[in-house]
Design a protein that fits this description.
alpha+beta; two-stranded antiparallel sheet; 3 helices
């Protein structure tokens, strides 16, 4: 797990829908967060966790996806997994603080908005040129 230092950042947005709070200062205490997503294999190791959905683009039950991130779990399943391994889910404030980075960027990569491209590691962007899209 990575140690995320305590700090204050500006959370929220003034230019989005009704569900967003206006920009306001938020302070978070120091916390720890896993640097990568939980894999299908790690989730399979949780004997007290229920099976996630297998519909659509879910990784559960798909051959060759043990090292892919677990997806299609609901909040209760994620909470149960965290509890089983002695961890917890981050709060909304902790998640946004960690995602923004210490410079308090608007996006994890900086202040430049993303393009309309959905996949960033395949053809269609300068870094992905010549690379096949991921599964």
């Amino acid at each position: 797990m990575l140690a995320i230092p305590a700090g204050t950042f500006r959370m929220g947005a003034n230019d989005v829908g009704d569900d967003a709070k206006p920009v306001h200062a938020v302070s978070v205490a120091a916390f720890c967060m896993d640097p990568t997503e939980v894999t299908v294999a790690a989730y399979k190791g949780c004997t007290s966790c229920s099976a996630p959905s297998t519909s659509g683009a879910c990784n559960w039950g798909v051959a060759g996806r043990d090292n892919h991130p677990i997806n299609c779990v609901d909040w209760n399943q994620a909470t149960a997994f965290c509890s089983a391994v002695g961890k917890r889910l981050p709060t909304e404030e902790e998640w946004e603080y960690a995602a923004r980075g210490t410079p308090a960027w608007k996006f994890p990569w900086g202040n430049t908005p993303p393009s309309n491209q959905l996949c960033w590691d395949g053809e269609g962007n300068d870094l992905g040129t010549g690379n096949p899209p991921s599964d």
